[in-house]
Design a protein that fits this description.
The protein has 186 residues and is an alpha+beta fold. The chain has a single domain, classed as Peptide deformylase (Peptide Deformylase). 22% of the residues lie in helices and 25% in strands. The chain has helices at residues 24-39, 131-144, 157-167; strands at 4-5, 44-46, 56-62, 68-80, 94-96, 104-106, 112-118, 124-130, 176-177. The longest helix is centred in the first third of the chain and has 16 residues, at 24-39. 33% of the residues are buried.
Protein backbone atom coordinates (compact mmCIF):
# COMPACT_ATOMS: atom_id res chain seq x y z
CA UNK A 1 0.00 0.00 0.00
CA UNK A 2 1.14 3.55 -0.69
CA UNK A 3 0.12 6.99 0.56
CA UNK A 4 -2.22 8.95 -1.71
CA UNK A 5 -0.99 12.37 -2.80
CA UNK A 6 -3.30 15.31 -2.14
CA UNK A 7 -4.03 18.10 -4.60
CA UNK A 8 -1.13 20.52 -4.76
CA UNK A 9 1.53 17.82 -5.05
CA UNK A 10 3.40 18.51 -8.32
CA UNK A 11 3.11 14.90 -9.58
CA UNK A 12 -0.68 15.39 -9.75
CA UNK A 13 -0.45 18.51 -11.90
CA UNK A 14 1.78 17.45 -14.79
CA UNK A 15 1.40 14.88 -17.58
CA UNK A 16 2.68 11.43 -16.66
CA UNK A 17 5.36 9.55 -18.60
CA UNK A 18 4.64 6.46 -20.71
CA UNK A 19 5.14 3.13 -18.94
CA UNK A 20 6.65 1.36 -21.94
CA UNK A 21 7.72 -2.15 -21.03
CA UNK A 22 5.99 -3.71 -18.04
CA UNK A 23 8.55 -5.11 -15.61
CA UNK A 24 8.49 -6.43 -12.05
CA UNK A 25 8.60 -2.88 -10.64
CA UNK A 26 5.46 -1.94 -12.58
CA UNK A 27 3.71 -5.13 -11.46
CA UNK A 28 4.61 -4.37 -7.83
CA UNK A 29 3.31 -0.80 -8.28
CA UNK A 30 0.01 -2.15 -9.63
CA UNK A 31 -0.31 -4.53 -6.66
CA UNK A 32 0.27 -1.59 -4.29
CA UNK A 33 -2.22 0.56 -6.20
CA UNK A 34 -4.95 -2.08 -6.05
CA UNK A 35 -4.40 -2.55 -2.32
CA UNK A 36 -4.45 1.23 -1.77
CA UNK A 37 -7.59 1.68 -3.91
CA UNK A 38 -9.47 -0.98 -1.92
CA UNK A 39 -8.30 0.38 1.43
CA UNK A 40 -9.32 3.96 0.59
CA UNK A 41 -11.97 2.80 -0.60
CA UNK A 42 -12.13 3.98 -4.19
CA UNK A 43 -13.26 2.80 -7.61
CA UNK A 44 -10.09 3.83 -9.42
CA UNK A 45 -6.55 4.99 -8.82
CA UNK A 46 -3.94 6.45 -11.15
CA UNK A 47 -0.19 6.07 -10.67
CA UNK A 48 0.38 9.83 -10.15
CA UNK A 49 -1.95 9.64 -7.14
CA UNK A 50 0.61 7.42 -5.39
CA UNK A 51 3.55 9.57 -6.50
CA UNK A 52 4.54 7.70 -9.68
CA UNK A 53 4.51 9.76 -12.87
CA UNK A 54 3.44 6.88 -15.13
CA UNK A 55 0.53 6.51 -17.57
CA UNK A 56 -1.15 3.73 -15.68
CA UNK A 57 -4.41 3.33 -13.76
CA UNK A 58 -6.46 0.61 -12.06
CA UNK A 59 -10.19 0.34 -11.50
CA UNK A 60 -12.64 -1.84 -9.56
CA UNK A 61 -16.37 -1.21 -9.57
CA UNK A 62 -19.47 -3.35 -9.16
CA UNK A 63 -22.39 -1.99 -11.20
CA UNK A 64 -26.01 -1.94 -9.97
CA UNK A 65 -26.64 -5.30 -11.70
CA UNK A 66 -23.81 -6.89 -9.70
CA UNK A 67 -21.35 -7.12 -12.60
CA UNK A 68 -17.71 -6.57 -11.63
CA UNK A 69 -15.63 -4.19 -13.74
CA UNK A 70 -11.94 -4.21 -12.86
CA UNK A 71 -8.62 -3.98 -14.57
CA UNK A 72 -5.34 -2.26 -15.27
CA UNK A 73 -4.77 0.20 -18.10
CA UNK A 74 -1.14 0.61 -19.19
CA UNK A 75 -0.38 3.56 -21.51
CA UNK A 76 -4.10 4.09 -22.23
CA UNK A 77 -5.82 6.13 -24.90
CA UNK A 78 -9.36 7.40 -24.35
CA UNK A 79 -12.06 8.69 -26.68
CA UNK A 80 -15.30 10.15 -25.35
CA UNK A 81 -18.70 11.08 -26.73
CA UNK A 82 -19.72 14.76 -26.86
CA UNK A 83 -20.95 16.24 -23.60
CA UNK A 84 -24.69 16.62 -23.09
CA UNK A 85 -25.90 20.21 -22.89
CA UNK A 86 -28.82 19.68 -20.51
CA UNK A 87 -28.78 20.86 -16.91
CA UNK A 88 -26.26 19.22 -14.58
CA UNK A 89 -27.82 16.63 -12.25
CA UNK A 90 -26.29 17.60 -8.91
CA UNK A 91 -26.75 14.12 -7.41
CA UNK A 92 -26.27 11.71 -10.32
CA UNK A 93 -23.20 13.55 -11.63
CA UNK A 94 -21.47 14.04 -8.29
CA UNK A 95 -17.85 12.92 -8.24
CA UNK A 96 -15.09 12.55 -5.68
CA UNK A 97 -11.36 11.96 -5.76
CA UNK A 98 -8.94 10.26 -3.40
CA UNK A 99 -6.57 13.20 -3.97
CA UNK A 100 -9.23 15.54 -2.54
CA UNK A 101 -10.46 13.19 0.19
CA UNK A 102 -13.94 13.68 1.54
CA UNK A 103 -14.99 16.32 -0.98
CA UNK A 104 -17.60 15.70 -3.68
CA UNK A 105 -18.83 18.03 -6.42
CA UNK A 106 -21.01 17.63 -9.52
CA UNK A 107 -19.17 17.46 -12.84
CA UNK A 108 -20.44 16.85 -16.35
CA UNK A 109 -18.66 13.94 -18.04
CA UNK A 110 -19.28 12.24 -21.37
CA UNK A 111 -21.88 9.47 -21.24
CA UNK A 112 -19.70 7.08 -23.26
CA UNK A 113 -15.98 6.38 -23.48
CA UNK A 114 -13.76 4.04 -25.44
CA UNK A 115 -10.65 2.90 -23.57
CA UNK A 116 -7.73 1.34 -25.43
CA UNK A 117 -4.73 0.18 -23.43
CA UNK A 118 -2.47 -2.75 -22.63
CA UNK A 119 -2.75 -5.09 -19.68
CA UNK A 120 0.19 -6.19 -17.52
CA UNK A 121 1.03 -8.94 -20.03
CA UNK A 122 1.30 -6.37 -22.81
CA UNK A 123 -1.90 -7.53 -24.47
CA UNK A 124 -3.87 -4.69 -26.08
CA UNK A 125 -7.54 -4.42 -25.12
CA UNK A 126 -10.49 -2.15 -25.79
CA UNK A 127 -13.50 -1.42 -23.56
CA UNK A 128 -16.56 0.55 -24.64
CA UNK A 129 -18.02 2.00 -21.45
CA UNK A 130 -21.17 3.89 -20.59
CA UNK A 131 -22.42 5.68 -17.50
CA UNK A 132 -20.43 5.33 -14.30
CA UNK A 133 -17.69 3.15 -15.84
CA UNK A 134 -17.17 5.79 -18.54
CA UNK A 135 -16.91 8.39 -15.75
CA UNK A 136 -14.30 6.29 -13.92
CA UNK A 137 -12.19 5.98 -17.08
CA UNK A 138 -12.38 9.73 -17.76
CA UNK A 139 -11.50 10.60 -14.17
CA UNK A 140 -8.47 8.30 -14.03
CA UNK A 141 -7.31 9.24 -17.53
CA UNK A 142 -7.41 12.93 -16.52
CA UNK A 143 -4.93 12.14 -13.73
CA UNK A 144 -2.48 10.91 -16.38
CA UNK A 145 -2.67 14.32 -18.05
CA UNK A 146 -2.15 16.21 -14.78
CA UNK A 147 -5.82 17.22 -14.45
CA UNK A 148 -7.88 16.74 -11.30
CA UNK A 149 -11.66 16.77 -11.43
CA UNK A 150 -11.51 19.93 -9.30
CA UNK A 151 -9.84 21.63 -12.29
CA UNK A 152 -12.90 20.87 -14.46
CA UNK A 153 -15.62 22.16 -12.16
CA UNK A 154 -17.96 24.92 -13.33
CA UNK A 155 -19.12 27.88 -11.24
CA UNK A 156 -20.33 27.82 -8.47
CA UNK A 157 -18.81 24.40 -7.73
CA UNK A 158 -15.28 25.47 -8.62
CA UNK A 159 -15.59 28.26 -6.06
CA UNK A 160 -16.76 25.81 -3.38
CA UNK A 161 -13.89 23.45 -4.28
CA UNK A 162 -11.38 26.29 -3.92
CA UNK A 163 -12.77 27.04 -0.47
CA UNK A 164 -12.47 23.37 0.48
CA UNK A 165 -8.84 23.27 -0.67
CA UNK A 166 -8.07 26.35 1.46
CA UNK A 167 -10.07 25.02 4.45
CA UNK A 168 -8.03 21.78 4.44
CA UNK A 169 -4.74 23.66 3.78
CA UNK A 170 -4.22 21.63 0.60
CA UNK A 171 -2.72 22.96 -2.62
CA UNK A 172 0.89 22.69 -1.51
CA UNK A 173 3.54 20.07 -2.34
CA UNK A 174 4.14 17.07 -0.13
CA UNK A 175 0.70 16.36 1.34
CA UNK A 176 -0.58 12.79 1.39
CA UNK A 177 -2.73 10.42 3.39
CA UNK A 178 -2.56 6.71 4.10
CA UNK A 179 -5.85 4.79 3.75
CA UNK A 180 -6.74 2.89 6.90
CA UNK A 181 -4.21 4.87 8.94
CA UNK A 182 -4.96 8.60 8.65
CA UNK A 183 -8.16 10.00 10.11
CA UNK A 184 -9.54 12.38 7.51
CA UNK A 185 -12.62 13.30 9.51
CA UNK A 186 -10.87 15.44 12.08
Amino acid sequence: MRPIRITGDPVLHRPADPVGEVDDAVRALVDDMVETMHAAPGVGLAAPQVGESLRLFVWHWVDPDGALHEGVAVDPELWVSPLRLDELDLDAEEEGCLSAPGERFPLRRADRALLRARDLDGTPFEIAAEGWLARIFQHEFDHLDGVLYLDRLAHPHEKAAGKAVRRHSWGVPGLSWMPGVDDLEG
